[in-house]
Write a structure and sequence with these properties.
724 residues; alpha+beta; seven-stranded mixed sheet; five-stranded antiparallel sheet; 20 helices; globular
Length: 724
């Protein structure tokens, strides 16, 4: 290299270094004199006494999802508003960043927080009197949404700032509340903590791990630009996936709410389960609470921790034990009505008269069906039939063995449940051994009953019900824990289960039996068993409160979904099965069940469907026919007009396959429809939209009507329908 060129290069480098050094010195001198950074213009006086601080970076709690990844629980950002009152709090360029005019600030801000101006001024005055640096505004200033924050930011009020936090939010409100539970911020733990249900049991999976960042700030709290750095990264919690189906759960919640309101129930509960897996699709009890409002009045997670006497749904277990053990009296008969129980050698026997009896067992409501077979006794839910079975055919010690095989009086032990009762087996005295057979005397829980019935509907295999599907890493989708179908026993053979399905078919579908109208469904063959039992209060049975229930499954030939529906109410006669049917239909839709359409030969039923009801008001009947032709529903035209003046359901309401749709025209002549098979709700809705008073007798579905279909209705006609 040329020595002269090398010298020139060194000289140039030296000159550049001198210039840079001069600029640095000038910048320092300028900054010292002006208190402003030369290049950025940043006021540095506010950082003259800066100190390093730390701040927690909050981890987000894991999400809870239903089986279709619909959000059940999530964290949402919230904000707490506060006002800086210290005049020393300034921003860049010595711009004041404090509230200098509390009254003006209150006049603008108070309406945004749903506060009175005087109420906000009280906070300011108290803070100033105590020489506070800043003040908050109570509960009305907490948990503000991002929308509220942005609206307040738009006011550009000096000294008004926000601290960011998060709260647990449940989008559906009332949604399996006792199962999901809730989480709240805990000051001592410094994080969101699960307080109940899944939120509590799976808290270690859901909670995540907080991080930390460091930064420099002035005495007035202004953060030094570029000083923030993360020392510990926050790790969000894991996500939990449930087996619950949102649509099924919402339908079940509505079913129980309707039950509470229309049947004056004191308590209602229900569980919907996929038969072959044990997956819980819906789970609820009422009274319930809103997961966001936490308006909790009763802490019972009823399906798991409420013990009750189940009534006649237990008869299926008794019959299954007799059949499976080879002790069922096929083709034999017994005398129904009343059973006089005597005792011989410590065992219950049937005696001839009440005078000889220790106890008397009656069929419901004192009915006497005469001499009937045990098969008919099951369909008629005869208590006397159970007593005869357990004294003459099925040894009570064998029945007790089957109670154990069905896991009664033992915990179901579902993951995610904090408290569970196991029931009480009163099986010492002869009368207790008989009453347990028809669901009185001994108590169980709903989940024990559901688990036992899976064996009846599932070829003898008893499935453990479960509602947690899996726990997943929220970052990479890795499955941390997974729960699946679990066979917890085979208490009966497949042949026994098949026989029980035949018996349960008659309960629901035989028109000569008492329960046909209540739970029968025209478009799928439901099987099941009803139950009614008296409620014991302080050791005494009361005639003012009953446990009414139905355990149903469909389709008959190969059950896929089952629902247990239970409620306590003062009435055990006139309630309808409509709430059950509405929820069960949604479960059928969710599981894709199809079956045989009743009374339709070989025509196959293609499955339940949902539609959105179109707006028909003020349209012609031609328009109605065109609009509704693709819907698998039944249009009931009311009046002989040509234009629609009323409709039910309303526009945008949900329709279900084969539902009645009522369309009122502007014509004045109304002919009587064929109401056969209509529900009580349909009859009432028709009467309301047609402007007719219709007398209804009984419950279930319509079997008789006083006016023949096709008859022109006159003003003086009395219209009466009988439901069974």
């Amino acid at each position: 290299m040329n020595p002269k060129r090398a010298n020139r290069t060194l000289t140039n480098i030296s000159i550049i270094c001198v210039i840079i050094a001069a600029l640095v010195v000038c910048n320092v001198l300028y900054t010292m004199i002006s208190k402003t950074h030369f290049r950025s213009g940043t006021l540095v006086s506010v950082y003259s006494s800066s100190a390093e601080k730390t701040r927690v970076i909050s981890a987000s709690r894991g999400y809870i999802y239903d089986r279709n990844k619909e959000i059940v629980a999530q964290d949402v950002d919230t904000y707490t508003i506060f006002a800086i009152l210290d005049p020393s709090h300034t921003g860049i360029g010595d711009v004041p960043e404090y509230v200098s005019d509390p009254l003006l600030t209150s006049e603008k801000l108070a309406p945004m927080l749903n506060m009175e101006v005087s109420e906000m001024m009280n906070y300011f005055e108290m803070a100033q009197a105590n020489n506070q640096y800043q003040t908050e505004f109570g509960l009305k200033g907490k948990n503000l949404s991002i929308t509220q924050k942005e609206a307040i930011d738009a006011l550009a009020l000096p000294g008004i700032e926000f601290s960011k936090s998060s709260k647990r939010f449940y989008p559906n409100g009332k949604f399996a509340s006792y199962l999901i539970g809730y989480a709240q911020y805990d000051d001592e733990a410094g994080r969101m903590v699960g307080r109940m249900g899944i939120e509590s049991v799976l808290d270690e999976y859901l909670k995540g791990s907080d991080g930390e960042e460091r930064y420099s700030a002035s005495a007035s709290g202004t953060v030094l630009p570029g000083s923030k750095y993360v020392t510990d990264q926050a790790v969000n919690g894991n996500d939990v996936y449930l087996t619950l189906d949102k649509n099924v759960q919402v339908a079940l919640e509505k079913c129980l709410e309707t039950t509470m309101n229309e049947f004056h129930a004191q308590r209602a509960w229900g569980v919907i389960v996929e038969v072959e897996t044990g997956k819980i699709l819906g789970y609820a009890s009422y009274p319930t609470f809103d997961l966001n409002e936490l308006d909790i009045k009763d802490y019972h997670n009823v399906p798991c921790d409420y013990m009750y006497e189940p009534g006649s749904v237990m008869k299926s277990i008794t019959y299954a034990a007799a059949i499976d053990s080879g002790n069922f009296p096929y083709g034999k008969t017994y005398q129904s009505g009343q059973f006089y129980m005597g005792i011989a050698n410590g065992k219950a026997i049937r005696v001839n008269s009440k005078a000889q009896a220790e106890e008397t067992i009656y069929d419901a409501m004192g009915r006497d069906y005469g001499t009937i077979s045990f098969e008919e006794g099951f369909a008629r839910s005869s208590n006397v039939g159970i007593a005869e079975l357990l004294t003459s055919h099925l040894p009570t010690n064998v029945f007790e063995e089957y109670l154990d095989r069905f896991n009664f009086f033992q915990p179901v032990d579902m993951v995610g449940v904090t408290r569970e009762e196991v029931g009480v087996k009163n099986y010492t005295y002869p009368i207790e051994k008989l009453t347990t057979g028809f669901g009185q005397g001994s108590s169980v829980t709903a989940m024990q009953m559901v688990q036992a019935y899976t064996a009846l509907f599932n070829d003898g295999k008893m499935m453990k019900p479960y509602f947690i599907d899996k726990i997943v890493n929220s970052y990479n989708g890795e499955v941390i824990e997974e729960y699946g179908p679990q066979v917890v026993g085979t208490p009966i053979a497949k042949e026994t289960a098949d026989k029980m399905k035949e018996l349960m078919y008659k309960v629901v579908n035989d028109k000569n039996m008492g329960n046909y109208g209540r739970y029968h469904m025209d478009d799928v063959e439901v099987i099941g068993k009803t139950g009614t039992s008296e409620v014991a209060i302080n050791g005494e049975y009361t005639s003012s409160m009953y446990v009414n229930s139905f355990m149903g499954a469909a389709p008959y030939d190969d059950p896929k979904v089952m629902m247990y529906y239970v409620f306590e109410a003062p009435d055990f006669l006139t309630y309808t099965g409509e709430p059950f049917q509405n929820a069960f239909r949604q479960a059928l839709i969710a599981t894709g069940v199809s079956g045989e359409r009743a009374n339709s030969g070989d025509e196959a039923y293609t499955g339940w469907q949902e539609y959105e009801m179109p707006a028909l008001m003020n349209h012609s009947l031609d328009y109605v026919n065109q609009k509704m032709k693709s819907y698998n529903v039944k249009n009931i035209i009311i009046g002989d007009g040509s234009a629609v003046v009323k409709q039910y359901p309303q526009a945008q309401d949900t329709l279900i396959s084969h539902q009645n749709v009522f369309i009122r025209t502007d014509g004045t002549n109304i002919t009587m429809p064929d109401m056969s098979g209509w529900s009580l709700k349909d009859v009432r809705q028709y009467g309301e939209i047609a402007g007719l008073d219709i007398l209804c007798e009984g419950s279930g579905s319509v079997r008789e009507q006083s006016i023949k279909s096709g008859t022109l209705i006159q003003a003086d006609m009395e219209i009466k329908v009988i439901l069974k």
